[in-house]
Amino acid sequence: MANVVVVGAQWGDEGKGKVVDIYTEHAQAVVRYQGGNNAGHTLVVGNEKTVLHLIPSGILHDGKKCIIGNGVVLDPAVFIQEIDNLKKKGYLRDDSQLVIDRNVHIIMPYHKKIDITRESKQSERRIGTTGRGIGPTYEDKAGRRGIRLCDLINDTIFVQKLREILPEKNFLLEHYFHEEPLSEQQILDEYRRYAERLSPYIGNTSQLLESCRLKGHNILFEGAQGSLLDVDHGTYPYVTSSSTLAGGACTGTGFGPRFIHEVIGISKAYVTRVGEGPFPTELSDDTGERIRKAGSEFGATTGRPRRTGWFDAVALREAVRTNGMTGLAITKLDVLDTFDAIRVCTAYSYQGQLLEEFPSDANILRHCKPVYEELDGWKCDISAARSYADLPPAAQRYLDKMQEISRCPIVLVSVGPRRDQTIQLRNPFHA
């Protein structure tokens, strides 16, 4: 038995969906533990692409229990649409395969409206949110004003809570944002329909996972976003609103930390970032655009072009430490196939100082300049490689350098979007 947490090791969009999809073969349960539909995991099976925003990536495998933990915030409309789309493709034939924790917080219409209007007023202080209402929902959760799934399915409680909070939200919308107020009756009518659709999937994540553990089942925990977007340890305030680190797997599911065996960090062979915030190795030139086009770097959730940059070992070391990573999965190595030379950031320069550790203050990070080491490119197509030995020597040297300066061993290398375009060096479920 092994329980494995998969986390993003950068600013998100690292290819976690593919890695989770691969590791699902060895697990009996797959659990999403934080975030909302501001995340997008893209899976390619054969030539068919599936994008998931809430439902765990393991749903494409028959017989796997897929669970949405209490740490997630749920947009019912998006969740229901995902279910319908999966069923049209022939997946989720058995509804008992999917479980939502009864304590997930529900994204309401006022959350989305506040998110969008607040961001539009920020001008130079924009965070770069997706406008999905994630942040305002977590605000209400922390402020003990949230509506949970267990409240939604109890109509008496739902009506009571909505009537308590909606006047406050409408006052804010009308008198601060100068927006139209929301209709209580329209919300009630809409969300009562959602309650009916969601009811068959409700469960208790903590109890379910304990049952799995006692049966000796392997459990795979699927994080969203990336470590550098963690609300406590990321580049605050340019972060998401939840705990994206491996520790969030415990608080977001009610699973004890002593039962976690492996933490696998997913890192691209370069770096991307969506939205605002400091990005030391960002390439705002033809090289950055070349990486963007080769890697199809556009957001799975928003479609926004991602900012691109060379591999940043300083940021990765931060993610390795804060997550307690036991292994790295390197994705999109093939995107660098055509480069004559490839750069790796090994340290930062800040006001005449050499920084080898990631600064916790985003105001300092904004003024850090990357210190690069240059390696030779391999200048050939590696998409058919299925073992480390199949890779050209220059690609092997690049991976060896990544392991050395990140202080974490590589356990998987992705050389293309398909499942089979993967080199597995160590399986964390068989360690």
From TrEMBL:
Q: Which positions are annotated as binding substrate?
A: 300-306
Q: Where does GTP bind?
A: 12-18, 40-42, 306, 332-334, 414-416
Cofactor binding note from Swiss-Prot or TrEMBL: Binds 1 Mg(2+) ion per subunit.
Asked if the Swiss-Prot or TrEMBL record annotates the protein with the keyword Zinc-finger, the reply is no
Q: Which residues cross the membrane?
A: none
The organism sits in which domain of life? Bacteria
As its record notes, the protein acts as a catalyst of: IMP + L-aspartate + GTP = N(6)-(1,2-dicarboxyethyl)-AMP + GDP + phosphate + 2 H(+)
A Pfam family matched in the record: Adenylsucc_synt
> Any idea which UniProt keywords this protein has?
Cytoplasm, GTP-binding, Ligase, Magnesium, Metal-binding, Nucleotide-binding, Purine biosynthesis
Q: Where does Mg(2+) bind?
A: 13, 40
InterPro entries documented for this protein: Adenylosuccin_syn_GTP-bd, Adenylosuccin_syn_Lys_AS, Adenylosuccinate_synth_dom1, Adenylosuccinate_synth_dom2, Adenylosuccinate_synth_dom3, Adenylosuccinate_synthetase, P-loop_NTPase
Q: Which pathway does the protein contribute to? A: Purine metabolism; AMP biosynthesis via de novo pathway; AMP from IMP: step 1/2
Which residues are the active-site ones? 13, 41, 141
EC numbers on record = 6.3.4.4
> What SUPFAM superfamilies has UniProt attached to this entry?
P-loop containing nucleoside triphosphate hydrolases
Q: Where in the cell is it found?
A: Cytoplasm
Q: Which SMART domains match?
A: Adenylsucc_synt (SM00788)
Q: How does it assemble?
A: Homodimer.
Functional description taken from the UniProt entry: Plays an important role in the de novo pathway of purine nucleotide biosynthesis. Catalyzes the first committed step in the biosynthesis of AMP from IMP.
Per the record, the similarity remark reads: Belongs to the adenylosuccinate synthetase family.
Identify this protein by name.
Adenylosuccinate synthetase
What is the species of this protein?
Desulfuromonas thiophila
